[in-house]
Here is the input.
Amino acid sequence: MKSRISISFLMFLSIGLAQINFSGSLVSNSGSSENSFNYSENRFSLNSDWNNWIGWLELEHSNPPELGRKNIGLRKIRIEYQGNNFALKLGDIYEYWGNGLIFNMIDDQSIDLDTGLKGALISYTNDFAILEYIYGNQRSWRSTIHMPDFDERIPNFRTNYILNGVKTSFNLQNSSYDFYLLDVANNAIDFDINSTLNKSSIETSSLLSGFSLNYAYNNFELDYHFTGKVKHKGSAHNFNSYVFLNDFSFSLSLKDYYFDKLSPDNRWDFINNPNGVAFFQQMPTVFKTHSSLYLARATHRVDYNDELGFSFTVEKQNRSNGSFIFNYSQSSRHAEWENVADQNSAFVWSVKDRTTLPSSKWQYNPFQEIYFEVNGYHDSKLFYQMSYANSYDVLDIFSSKYLQSGHAYSYEALNAKTIPIIMSYELDSRNSINTQIEYQILKKGIYSINPNSANLNQSFGSSFSEKVQRNKFISIGFSRSPKWSISLNIDNTNTEDILIIEKKRSSNFIENLLHPYIDKSLTWSNVELIFNPYNSTQISLSYGSQRGGVLCSNGICRYVQSFENGLKFGITAAF
Here is the structure.
């Protein structure tokens, strides 16, 4: 009798499993270097679907990861049900409301950014409207100098939000309308490393409301998004428009984000100013994103609490199956701040003036970028992409005093002129040669003036050992499709931060070979091999060094330390 029951159970289980579809992926990366930048991160994802049900889980064994905190065990799990009119999600949820102005839930492991929510999403749909309800806990790890144990690589502060929201959507013939209401409870930490107070947990709450409009007619499209705080002051506006005329396309994007008024000293202090923008509000950056190595390092850091700006793009398709692209982006803060003397004769920050349009004056922390690009094919064998960008960004303001003798000030700015070139030549149907060349002139440092000194001219103190940094990058590779490719990458500069120069580096054999022609102490080079044994599997292996620098995604930037003379191994597989 027991054997019959066992056989019947196994038959039922096998029939049930046969009706479930499974798929998954494995991502494994490891590295070991002479400067102890060692990591081992492994993630396994499993997806399944059966009738109206979908399941997903992700296991992780990262000790330590390349960026982020150690994690061993279950990382993500979600189960979904999709009916004719009703849908349900339980577990780790990633949604996108109000073009990111309400929330933008992202899982970007390249910069250790995870703004997902653990909770539930219920939705009901009919021919006229969609109603959604979301509830859950949103936690993310962040790095900040305002908490103990600051480390660029390992975050030291965890956000803790409870979200409770509803969304209603209406779809008409040429337009759609979305309305949002989100209650946010923030269990933050009241702690300042410069104070003598003990840290304590405090709770703040806010209520966000907003709406979105999307309209399309023939060759014209636009969308507008608004979010405002009901209980506290603060709002965000985002507008995007697109026009398509034959071979031309035009786009204009606007942003006006103003959630908190913070002085230059407190601008990035979200620990002691928890009532500003929430971390899960990853809003549009409204400037062109770049894949170029050097342009990415000079990416503007968006102040979602206080920034207004625009981005204008013209693109023309050409006869060589390519295009010409022009983009201009500009942004700034809403107010100019100055140092004024209080009753104790101590200088404190105070708002001096305001603007309703993006300002180019340094007092408003302006950002400006002009970008040109030409790409296409020549004789169907040579692909080319040539670009030029001129970027200017005021990073920080340290002082601004209007004295009787004149204006005394000090601020840090960056100006970068960058030329990236990409070329790929197809030798035959399987073999090609690939080249990437970049050149950048970077001027970064502190501008200051003291009207009480003998020298009334503006002075400049470079962030580097020389006044201007000249960066040169070249990558030469050969690929045989679809199996393998190999590339040599060389990143060279004439100067660096004084701390990097004083820190002695040991060279690898590639840098030693190049030493008669370039300074090996300021050169980072590596060789990378990529092998595809199957269509769904890729193996990568690299040896050498990789220069440290800023890595940005969606306006969020992280500094990644250099990787000195080591070995990296990676495998990505799907089934």
